[in-house]
Amino acid sequence: MLDTLLGWIDDRSGLITATRRVLQHPVPPRTGWWYVFGSATGLAFLLQVATGIALATAYVPSSGQAYDSLRFISEQALLGRFLRGMHYFGASAMVLLIGIHVSRTYLMAAYKFPRELNWLTGAVLLLLTLALAFTGQLLRWDQTAVWSVIVGAAQAGRMPIVGEQIARFILAGDTLGGATLSRFFAFHVFFIPALVFLLIGVHLLLVLRHGISERPKAGEPVDPATYRRRYDELLQREGVPFWPDAAWRDVVFGAAMVSTVALLAVIVGPPDLGPPPDPSILEAYPRPDWYFLWYFAVLAMAPQHLETIIIVAGPLVFGALLLLVPMFNKGERSVRRRPMAALLVVFIWTMILVFWVAGERADWSPDFDAAPLPAQVVRSTDPTIVAGAKLFHDKGCEFCHAVAGYGGKRGPDLTDVAARMSPDQITGRITNGGPNMPAYVRVLTSEETAAIVAFLNTRR
Ligand code: HEC
């Protein structure tokens, strides 16, 4: 019965024969574990589609309800917390895996003749993956997510000539609001995934057309005149069927990846929702998700006059590098004969890691968890001074300034501020603010300012 049915389907559609041909097409021998990251990236994407559709059934993409609907998903909906966790760690997996896959194909020079288009479609897929990560983050619609996008749009706005249009396109208007959310939602769930499906299709067709690249060997350079003949000879001599000889590793690795994501979703869970976005909070310091944190760290640590250059040149250089790679489509593939390629990859991963660690520590962002100054630090029972010390915490000075080790590191340490500043100077600074310090003229009453100054005047 089943055989007749399958036979009928195959006769009318040809699907089963085609699948069998794909699964059994010969691939080069001894490809090994380095070749699993492409299929794992694709699998991570499918996982995102599945969990994303599930989340979209309960998520409300409107600025008034997005936050509450996510609360509902995380706290009450059946499996909601698990699905959000899967979607979050799945996104992390996809970004990480595509990074490894790109590094691997670059290190093994799999982009050389005749696979230049494989590389270029892959490069676009890398950019689309980052775009998915960026647009997805905003859908969380909590404070840091919203501010991350505002900062991103502000950065884009600094590009010469086209900057303003790009910023307006990202925000869907002049400021961030409901229209921004609708736009990000449409891009995140319809437009970008559709492009990704299309490009993965092209990418896979190209893989079938040119075959999986063989393990590079030093001293066997790629020559477009002879490469195809030598590749075919290799397949005839030593080729193995893709399934099961090579594909079993993809299956094992893919299953391990999905299990890890599921395990993390259960044990760690999705990122906590921060406070809902509040446009009146000026001292918001966004912390994007980990895969963009390093870039924020670069911007935060760059001297101000270099910032614009980095914003403009950084993405341009990165994009140009990606496009230029397949121009070098001849010659040695083995990384032993391409030491500069190895150095470049090590350099890029090290930079990302270093800046990511700096972003994790984030000395430049205010410490919103700073505890109120204890009595032994205040060292006075004078009511004005005690009130000033309390205001120093309550009005947020302590987020940025430390006194005797309590508080943030964004601004100068004020432990001995009275030794270098007169009360008038301190008052002036509080009223007018300064670079990276808000002006408090409309935030504090003159009595409050006087109390803070009285307290700071004891610090010498
Ligand atoms: C968002 C972070 C931030 C907050 C909040 C903040 N400051 Fe500052 N503050 C800074 C930075 C950064 C500087 C150094 C830049 C400058 O020269 O203005 C600074 C400078 C100062 C200085 C001069 C210190 C020196 O050694 O030159 C004083 C005094 C000061 N702040 C007091 C306060 C008080 C009091 C409050 C609360 C009412 C406050 N700050 C809130 C970031 C902040």
Give the gist of this structure.
The chain is mainly α and 460 residues long. 65% of the residues lie in helices and 1% in strands.
Write structural notes for this entry.
This protein has helices at about 1-15, 15-25, 35-55, 65-75, 80-105, 115-140, 145-155, 165-170, 180-210, 225-240, 240-265, 290-300, 305-325, 340-360, 375-380, 385-395, 395-400, 415-420, 425-430, 445-455, and strands at about 25, 240. The longest helix has about 35 residues, at about 180-210. Helices cover about 65% and strands about 0% of the residues. The chain has 20 helices and two strands. The model has no long low-confidence stretch (mean pLDDT about 90). A two-stranded antiparallel ribbon has the order 1-2. The protein folds into two domains: about 25-360, Up-down Bundle (Cytochrome Bc1 Complex, Chain C), CATH 1.20.810; about 375-455, Cytochrome Bc1 Complex, Chain D, domain 2, CATH 1.10.760. α4 (about 65-75) packs across α5. It is an all-alpha fold and about 450 residues long.
Observed structural traits:
single chain, 460 residues, mainly alpha, Cytochrome Bc1 Complex, Chain C, Cytochrome Bc1 Complex, Chain D, domain 2, 2 domains, 20 helices, 2 strands, 65% helix, 1% strand, binds heme C
The assigned structural class equals mainly alpha
User: Low-confidence stretches at least 5 residues in length (pLDDT < 50)?
Assistant: none
The helix content is 55-70%
Taking all residues together, what is the mean pLDDT?
92
